Amino acid sequence: MAARLLEVRDLRVEFRTRDGIAEAVGGVSYGVDAGRTLAVLGESGSGKSVTAQAVMGILDSPPGRVTGGQVLFRGRDLLTMGARERRRIRGAAMAMIFQDALSALNPVVSVGAQLAEMYEVHRGMSRKDARRRAVELMDRVRIPAAGQRAGDYPHQFSGGMRQRIMIAMAMALEPELIIADEPTTALDVTVQAQVMDLLAELRREYAMGLVLITHDLGVVADVADTIAVMYAGRIVETAPVRDLYRRPAHPYTRGLLDSVPRVDHRGERLYAIKGAPPSPLAMPSGCPFHPRCPRAQEVCRTERPPLYEVATADATRAFGASPGSGASGASAVSIASSASPGSGAPPAPGGRTSACHFWKDELDARDSHDALGA
User: Fold this and answer.
1) How far apart are CA 38 and CA 30, in angstroms?
2) Which residue, 134, 156, 242, 373, has fewest beta-carbon neighbours within 10 Å?
3) CA-CA distance, 355 to 248, in Å (whole number)?
């Protein structure tokens, strides 16, 4: 069986601060295959970008450092590679699109020269040939009058055009994997749609894998194949995109979905998840979400839930799970093959997981809600 394009296993990252050690990423596991899109979703501070920086090998160290886990690219662990070998992979085989294009681009070098440098350094092209390829690339990402604008500087472009330049830089060497960190931040809705359509088109054209980091549920609905939801430095749910939107298996995911404005709820008060995410310096015991969870019970305050493998409704009924019983739901999933705590293996493509003791209750609640709505 061929190795997955990217497989993150039990990745852990901490930061040493004056106030103590902050665990920013506490055992994250996910994977993505060629030609597929994984969306990593969560509030600000959930560890999405830190995980991506650790995968790319660009984590600021100190104060940050990877303390455990594996990052497998085509079956090879990037964390055990030498710095020179990893630099050869970065840019050529895997690239990253940063959320703040104006800060990521060099303000005193023209965009054409920055794009051409990729070809000169990695492909050994002459300056003339590299410049020609840079203009072709700008035209490919739909920069108007690319030949004339190649000599312009980043501040002379709009936010949407700068983001297209960042996409062009990431795509320059036709990598197998792109990590896009909040690529639509600070862009208006129409430009967001254009950028996302462009990323989806390029992913199909080059059959590359795409990891899309965002906090916007609306952005990922049409482009993602699988969603991994992060909270407090951990994955709390993974699911195919349609399954997650239809039947979330974690109360945090359900809260995020209920917080999205909907036309059919016009005039109703918009739902908001109470409280704020915990500090990585003072993580609560048990489930990190329990102080904000409307379904929290005593076990949630004392025992951290593993990442359960979520069975289908038919499977849980076959194992005798009684509706509304979180304990029986957990029992059913353990029989049906629960995710092994500490194994670090991401779920198989198309699989579902939930880090909630009462994930079965969440599915039942959604089923009851849908039935009442029907």
Assistant:
1) 9
2) 373
3) 12
- CA–CA dist 76, 354 (Å, integer): 27
Count of structural domains within the chain: 1
Give 176's contacts (C-beta < 8 A, 6+ positions apart). Answer: 5, 34, 74, 93, 94, 208, 209
Sheet holding 64-73, edge to edge: 20-32, 6-17, 64-73, 76-77
Q: CB within 8 A of 360, min separation 6: which ones? A: 316, 321, 325, 326, 328, 329, 330, 332, 333
- Is residue 261 a part of any domain in this protein? no
Cα 49 to Cα 43, 115, 223, 292: the distances in Å are 11, 24, 19, 23
Model pLDDT, residue 371: 52
Q: What is the pLDDT of residue 196?
A: 87
Find the helix or strand (DSSP H, E) in which 34 lies.
none
**Is 219 among the domain residues?**
no
CA distances from 365 to 31, 228, 251, 368, 369 (A): 29, 21, 10, 5, 6
Tokens of 71: 């990052």
Report the range of poorest mean pLDDT among 127-136, 224-233, 332-341. 332-341
**22 assigned to some structural domain:** no
* Average pLDDT score over the chain: 85
The amino acid at 169 = M
Task: Enter the tokens of residue 58.
Answer: 């660009």
363 close to 313: Cβ distance less than 8 angstroms: yes
10 Å Cβ neighbour count for 67? 13
Count CA within 13 A, CB hemisphere, residue 5. Answer: 20
Question: pLDDT tens-digit profile of 216-252?
Answer: 887 788 889 999 999 999 999 999 999 999 999 999 9
Tell me which long-range contacts 79-82 makes (C-beta under 8 A, separation of at least 24).
Answer: none
Torsion sign across C-alpha atoms 225, 226, 231, 233? negative
Return the H-helix or E-strand segment holding 233.
none
> From CA 12, how far away is CA 37, in angstroms rounded?
23
Tokens read off for 299: 């076990």
Phi, psi for residue 257 in degrees, rounded to 5: -65, -40
Give the structural domain span for 310.
Answer: 281-373
